[in-house]
Design goal:
Elements (H helix, E strand, L loop, with lengths): L2 H7 L5 H11 L11 E5 L2 E4 L4 E4 L14 H11 L12 H13 L4 E5 L2 H15 L6 E5 L8 H6 L16 E4 L4 H7 L4 E6 L15 H12 L2 E5 L14 H4 L5 E4 L10 E5 L20 H16 L2 H22 L3 E7 L2 E6 L4 H9 L2 E2 L1 E3 L3 E4 L7 H16 L6
Parallel strand pairs: 3-13, 5-6, 5-7, 7-8, 8-9
Antiparallel strand pairs: 1-2, 2-3, 4-10, 9-10, 11-12, 12-15, 14-15
Helix pairs in contact: 3-10, 4-10, 11-13
The structure holds pyridoxal-5'-phosphate (PLP).
Length: 408
């Protein structure tokens, strides 16, 4: 086949044809459903066969504004025809504007831009080591946490299943149980540089910290002159109904990392830090070739503008309450459910049994959801769902869970 033919074929293959391409040519490092998604609009997505799905897990948390949000599409279309990429050896107006918007909505600091969550966390790890005295290199993280797949971030991720066979890991990480301040205090020594934590664990199963935990970490960090790093790759950018998850708990980090929904579905990542700490990431010490490129920057600005234009933070509170009501009502009549955890557009339903069959059954009924940690149904829906869509999806989910076989 010629290249031209290959290109004209995009958008014409069945799911089975695409599956064949993957079997032959794509590294099999993901578990994939045998469905090729080809088009999306809001919280609806369509496969190559024309089947419509309601998407309660759009873009694995990246599409917080739904599929193809109008402001993102317009900004990217305009930018891509004007200037696609220029390196960070030049000033980039949109990057500066974007950094200002993020600073004004967080703690008034400065931004470093990259392309993904793991990259933002790598920058945070380097910055913590650079900013603290030379003997300090250790970082305390939390069991069940998730920080990404590059080596620093994987080493920070305290889940043994992600470490098997790839060692040695980056030195200096030690792990505490999520929520256990006493254990953190025990791990701190004069080589500790930082504490790194997701304010709400996402991949770990939508785990909300116990009362006072984050404030306790802030206190420990201050007492021992450590940096407090919040990984808000999943909880940031409006997900929880505040701009950033930390704003729920009234505890401000020294370093904040963002990605996933940061650019309304376009790839982008960022690290925010204070003006005092920022200069430690001095010229020559760190970089990302595509970081803060004009397209990502315009998309990032458009995402903020859309959230404000459409009052989406307020909408999250409304939608979240519906999810909470529906799931707690289900819990009351179904003993397969061990716990329901809801914060903004993060919904975790912990089952007494494996969750994978529920994901499959929902897929067949036209609802896309996720299961994490084996038994936690996780929803990361878009903040611009309609209440009707919430109910429609919950009807399917409730029906599926009620019909699951009881734990044996
Ligand atoms: C997804 C995620 C990451 C990794 O982000 P990538 O963009 O896949 O590198 C890091 N931290 C948290 C909390 C995440 O949810």
């Amino acid at each position: 086949m010629s290249t031209t033919q290959d290109r004209s074929n995009v958008g014409q293959l069945s799911s089975a044809d695409t599956a064949e391409l993957f079997k032959q040519y794509v590294v099999p490092n993901y578990g994939r459903y045998p469905v090729s998604l080809v088009r999306g609009e809001g919280s609806r997505v369509w496969d190559a066969e024309g089947k419509e799905y309601l998407d309660f897990f759009p873009g694995w948390g990246c599409n917080l504004l739904g599929h193809c949000p109008d402001t993102i599409v317009a900004a990217v279309q305009e930018q891509i025809a004007t200037l696609i990429h220029v390196p960070n050896s030049w000033l980039i107006e949109a990057q500066g504007q974007w950094a200002k918007l993020l600073s004004e909505r967080s703690f008034g600091g400065q931004a470093f831009f990259c392309n993904s969550g793991t990259e933002a966390n790598e920058a945070a790890i380097k910055l913590a080591r650079l900013h603290t005295p030379p003997q300090r290199y250790k970082i305390i993280t939390f069991q069940g946490g998730f920080h990404g797949r590059t080596f620093g971030a994987t080493s920070a991720t305290a889940q043994p299943k992600y470490h098997e066979g790839i060692g040695p890991l980056l030195a200096g990480f030690s792990y505490a149980p999520f929520g256990d301040l006493e254990a953190v205090a025990q791990l701190i020594d004069d080589q500790t540089a930082a504490i790194m934590v997701e304010p709400i664990q996402g991949e770990g199963g939508v785990r909300i910290p116990p009362e006072g935990f984050l404030a306790g970490l802030r206190k420990l960090a201050d007492e021992h002159e450590l940096l407090l790093i919040f990984d808000e790759v999943q909880t940031g950018c409006g997900r929880t109904g505040h701009w950033f998850g930390y704003q729920h708990f009234d505890v401000t980090p020294d370093i904040l990392t963002l990605a996933k929904s940061l650019c309304g579905g376009v790839a982008g990542g960022a690290l925010l830090t204070t003006k005092e700490i920022a200069p430690s990431l001095r010229p020559g010490m760190h970089a990302a070739t595509f970081g803060g490129n004009p397209i990502a920057a315009r998309a990032g600005i458009a995402a903020i503008e859309m959230i404000e234009r459409d009052n989406l933070l307020e909408n999250v509170a409304v939608l979240s309450e519906i999810f909470r009501e529906r799931m707690t009502a289900l819990q009351a009549e179904c003993d397969l459910i061990q716990e329901v955890r809801v914060i903004g557009m993060m919904i975790g339903v912990e089952l007494a049994i494996e969750g994978a069959p529920a994901v499959k059954a929902c897929l067949e009924k036209g609802l896309l959801i996720n299961c994490t940690q084996g038994n936690v149904i996780r929803l990361l829906p878009a903040m611009n769902l309609t209440p009707e869509e919430v109910h429609q999806g919950c009807d399917i989910l409730v029906d599926v869970i009620k019909n699951m076989a009881p734990a044996s």
